[in-house]
Description:
It is built from 6 helices and 9 strands, in the order ααββαβββααβββαβ. It folds into 2 domains: 1-61 and 82-163, Ubiquitin Conjugating Enzyme (Roll), CATH 3.10.110; 211-244, Zinc/RING finger domain, C3HC4 (zinc finger) (Herpes Virus-1, 2-Layer Sandwich), CATH 3.30.40. The chain has helices at residues 2-9, 17-34, 73-78, 130-133, 142-156, 223-226, and strands at 37-43, 48-61, 82-92, 102-105, 112-114, 161-163, 211-214, 219-221, 241-244. Strand 7 (211-214) and strand 8 form a beta hairpin. The chain has a 4-stranded antiparallel beta sheet with strand order 1-2-3-4. A 3-stranded antiparallel beta sheet has the order 8-7-9. Strands 5-6 form a two-stranded antiparallel ribbon. Residues 64-70 and 165-196 have low confidence and may be disordered. The longest helix is centred in the first third of the chain and has 18 residues, at 17-34. It is globular. By secondary structure, it is an alpha+beta fold.
Amino acid sequence: MNEIITRFFSCSPHCKPEVLGRILRDVENLCNTFHFYCRDATWGVTQQEKLCIYGGLPIIIKKSNSDQAFLTPDSREKAPPHRYVLPLQIWLTHLYPIEPPLVFLLSAEQGCRIASNHKHVDATGRCHTPELAAWHPVSSSLCDVVKKLGQLLSAEGLIPLCFGEEGVSSSSKGHATTVPQRLCHGLENDDDGKQTDEHERCVVCFSHKETVLVPCGHYCLCDACATNVTHCPLCRGSVKFRQRVFS
């Protein structure tokens, strides 16, 4: 990871050794805290080179009153909250940390889209928080930005991803928007009462694994995440091609 970051910022005239050291520590702290991964990539139709940090952002949302309508008061108190892991990407330009990071939620799964009127996420998936608005090149950190984003989304009580025509609306305040089951991390019991097997989940977004990376042979990603990586997240080996596995 350090090699990727150093190579990316080597052409930045502002990136002196002390600045590069701070960037390396900041990214390493973020990746270790949230189990994120890092790669260099091109940005959209402009094909601008940027550094991409990606992974799953865990959030916890309390169950709505409608979910608990048939529970006794004692059962409501003990009812577990909804726990989700949202696919997140953070993009850094060559001018980082002078320029703030670009933080996006993804809607990579077919039929899933960004809700249109969420308080902290716009229709493109870009996240807006006070920490990003007040970004400072020296005192701000990526880890703090991601932590605060998770806290804001949890406190808001609304999932910014949805299926079909459903989305965030003022009438659904305090309720979790309908989201794909793939976003639910293995923290809640399945219908059969057994804990979800994390060994069967994508290491990036926690959906079900379905792709083998070649030539390293690691079976660790869903199809959507596999198309976005150039190096294996487990061994960091280069990915030559991807083999979909059908069960």
